[in-house]
Amino acid sequence: MGIFMILFTLIGGITLSAQSSINGTFSRKAGTIETTFLTFLTGTMFLTIFILFFGGGNVLALFDVPKCQLSAALLGTMYLLLTVMAVPRIGVIATNIAGIAGQLVIGVVIDHFGWFNSLVIEFDTKRIFALLFMILSLYFIYKGNKRSKEILNTQ
């Protein structure tokens, strides 16, 4: 089952990068906030249909959860909005690596302290090196993007 979850997450990452690229281009014409709104509106319509035919949960349970857990919706919206803003300026790969680096940094903190009822996984040398390599890769990708942009602007 674990290999399927990795495969599904890999496919999710592929769709996220494609979405970032498309939304970044679309936002140049429609606007950043408008593009983000359209994405969530389309997602809402799709998920409403999906829930009607395949849903087995309890949508009304959202009234019973601690209110701080509803902040996840705002955090997802902020992620998409910031991604739509970044892609046209720094490119898809730099945007996605920056997003992943941010996820890893906060993930290590969440794991270390066991926030949000997560497993407690101590911060160790391997995690430090993983974060450093991710930040180093972001640096090289961003610098490569800037260099490519400068070359294009001089031609």
Topology, pairings included?
Layout: H1 2-30, H2 32-54, H3 71-90, H4 92-113, H5 125-154
Helix pairs in contact: 1-2, 1-3, 1-4, 2-3, 3-4, 4-5
Describe the structure.
The protein has 155 residues and is an all-alpha fold. The chain has one domain. 80% of the residues lie in helices and 0% in strands. The protein contains 5 helices and no strands. Helix 1 crosses helix 4. The protein is globular and about 60 Å long. The relative contact order is 0.08. The mean pLDDT is 88. The chain crosses the membrane at residues 36-63, 70-87, 93-116, 128-145. Keywords: Membrane, Transmembrane, Transmembrane helix. Pfam families: DMT_YdcZ.
Keywords:
single chain; about 160 residues; mainly alpha; about 80% helix; globular; transmembrane; DMT family transporter; transmembrane helix
SS summary, helix count: 5
Helical content (DSSP H or I, runs of 4+): over 70%
- N-to-C order of helices and strands: HHHHH
- Largest sheet properties: none
Please tally the β strands and state the result: 0
- Average the pLDDT over all residues and give the rounded result: 88
Give the total of domains. Answer: 1
Termini Cα gap: 51 Å
Approximate strand percentage? under 5%
Radius of gyration: 19 Å
- Low-pLDDT parts are none
